């Protein structure tokens, strides 16, 4: 599946244009709106691949893509905010404990333990959120209903299936491998760092498309999603 996912973005004669657009948008992600567009495109990838389309989508219907991306961002944010809240609570409790104890050794130990526990709990919940989010996005992509991303009854069978576990790990390997390569480039003074800075957004976008191809393909196999028509492929969606 890794080789198929890595070849998927090139299954279109205009693939280089798509990667260039995606890379530029990723590079400009700090402007927020480009990030929504990238997320919207990745949702199109999931929506297409779950329905058996082996040709990657293109960047068009920018308004619909941006709206889709905002919804995808909201889904990821909701799942990701809980670990941050819990970490803040533990760290806040540690700080209060240190000040309440007047800076004593006991207060310092208490603060350190609370901070460590908070970090560990947040790490576990963060990994859990990272595991759930692709499935939540896929369920939203299939139904075009925002609420379906939080439908525990629909998500549970997928999240506990061996196929999804394998797909998630495979997608993780693709993303991790790319991050390692870019990190190795950073070791080379100046030239390597420059290459990593310039190529990073484009390579990262390519890897994200490959990773979400894996998620979409797996979701389609688990749900037996029907083939899409041309209107769906172009990105047209029903209203919520």
Automatic annotation (TrEMBL):
Keyword field contains Transmembrane helix: yes
Highest taxon of the lineage: Archaea
Membrane-spanning parts: 20-43, 73-101, 107-133, 165-188, 194-215
Keyword set, alphabetical order: Membrane, Transmembrane, Transmembrane helix
UniProt cross-references to InterPro entries, sorted A to Z: DUF4013
Name of the protein in question: DUF4013 domain-containing protein
Source species: Haloferax volcanii
